[in-house]
Amino acid sequence: MNVKTISASDLHRFCSDVLKQSLPEEESEIIAETLVDADLRGVTSHGVQRMSGYLQRMEKGIIERKTEITVTQNNFATVLLDANNGWGQVAGVKAMNMAIQKAEQYGTSFVGVANSNHFGTASFYTRMVAERGFIGISMTNASPIMVPFGAKEPSLGPNPISIAIPAGENQRPIILDMSTSNVARGKIMVAKKNNEAIPEGWAITKDGKQTTNPHEAWEGFVLPMGPKGSGLAIIIDILSGVLTGSLFGKRMPRQYDDPYPQRLGHLFGAINIESFGDPDLFYKHVQEKIEETISSEPSEGFDRVYMPGDLELQRKKEREETGIPISTEILNELKETGEKYGVDLKDYTQQKQAE
Ligand SMILES: NC(=O)c1ccc[n+]([C@@H]2O[C@H](COP(=O)([O-])OP(=O)(O)OC[C@H]3O[C@@H](n4cnc5c(N)ncnc54)[C@H](O)[C@@H]3O)[C@@H](O)[C@H]2O)c1
């Protein structure tokens, strides 16, 4: 695969300038930040390669250009927002900021969002909470392209969940961020764009057969992370979709196939550690937990043991220095998207041939 590298700041400016042609400036900045953040951390499946798909839905009028969020319910420690078919990233940042404020006041808080769209990576929002020194939780339901364990027909999204745990000032937090499928479907999308085979176990064809062909896999369905991934996806569908009064399961239109608003739901939570005990003692014990985990002797075939979030953090540090590698196929797609909006990718990039 041919790859070129672009600095995070150039990529951010390009994405926000493209988005600004249709969306308010502040909202464009938020969306660009979430996309580049994913690429910085090596989560290509949810990085800038998502732009064209998002914009196509917006061009067709399936997603609103401006995200007008309304408050449906505001109780002591819980809020229900309506994203009114706006952008999931804009709703996510607003909702999590509210959850943090409520947790400062009431100890813990949950904020639900109804009638939203794809919000990108779940940990973008939980990391906001960990930076505040609280525990963050986020989840969303998604397009029904995953089969429940043992089923032939899809009725679940690869519904992701993230939990971020702070470990004190200047200490890296623990950041679990996972789809409930074996891998995020976005990885199949990237493999399809780059024409690369996928490993077995990621997806099945429409007829229920295992496949390593990314095109067949895209037409087919992703597999849950066993019965436990399937069970967790059902719970997330209920907490994000049913609880917020959003669409759920089979009735949700699919992001890449159906020309209707998805009206999906998210749930965001924040736990103020002080409401349970001494935060400093908590952070100390979290650091001990990290230490006992990463100091475990690696088993055969492993170099070392990582905490959730460590590999992404390591990639972020590297890519902040060296830039973000992007395949020429995805770069061409970005270039075409830019051209549609009168934004020339060349004006933003000092591209270096990396491989
Ligand atoms: N918005 C949506 O609808 C949607 C749907 C699905 C997935 N997603 C996002 O896709 C992204 C990718 O999801 P995924 O399930 O493919 O992620 P993944 O399989 O790459 O990683 C999942 C988790 O495992 C941890 N991990 C990976 N290797 C590890 C190791 N060797 N040791 C310790 N921990 C390790 C990671 O740090 C991460 O927390 C996530 O950010 C998720 O939120 C979003």
- Straight-line N-to-C gap: 8 Å
| CATH fold-level name of the largest domain | Ribosomal Protein S8, Chain: A, domain 1
Number of strands: 13
For the record, the count of structural domains works out to 3
The CATH homologous superfamily of the largest domain corresponds to Malate/L-lactate/L-sulpholactate dehydrogenase, NADPH binding domain
Q: Helix coverage percent of residues?
A: 25-40%
**Which residues form runs of ≥5 with pLDDT under 50?**
351-355
Protein name: Ldh family oxidoreductase
Family: Belongs to the LDH2/MDH2 oxidoreductase family.
Pfam family, one: Ldh_2
Organism: Oceanobacillus kapialis
Give an account of the 3D structure.
The protein is α+β, with helices and mostly antiparallel strands and 355 residues long. The chain folds into three domains: 1-60 and 325-355, Malate/L-lactate/L-sulpholactate dehydrogenase, four-helix barrel (Hypothetical Oxidoreductase Yiak, Chain: A, domain 1); 67-181 and 224-322, Malate/L-lactate/L-sulpholactate dehydrogenase, NADPH binding domain (Ribosomal Protein S8, Chain: A, domain 1), CATH 3.30.1370; 187-223, Wheat Germ Agglutinin (Isolectin 2), domain 1, CATH 3.30.60. It has eleven helices and 13 strands. The protein has helices at residues 8-20, 25-40, 51-59, 88-106, 123-131, 186-194, 214-219, 226-242, 279-294, 310-322, 328-340, and strands at residues 3-6, 70-74, 78-82, 108-116, 135-140, 161-165, 174-178, 203-204, 210-211, 221-222, 264-271, 324-327, 352-353. A seven-stranded mixed sheet has the order 2-3-4-11-5-6-7, with helices on both faces. A hairpin with an 8-residue loop joins strand 6 (161-165) and strand 7 (174-178). The longest helix has 19 residues, at 88-106. The chain is globular and about 55 Å long. Residues 351-355 have low confidence and may be disordered. The chain binds nicotinamide-adenine-dinucleotide. Nicotinamide-adenine-dinucleotide binds next to strand 7 and helix 10. This is Ldh family oxidoreductase. InterPro entries: Mal/L-sulf/L-lact_DH-like_ah, Mal/L-sulf/L-lact_DH-like_NADP, Mal/L-sulfo/L-lacto_DH-like_sf, Malate/L-lactate_DH-like. Belongs to the LDH2/MDH2 oxidoreductase family.
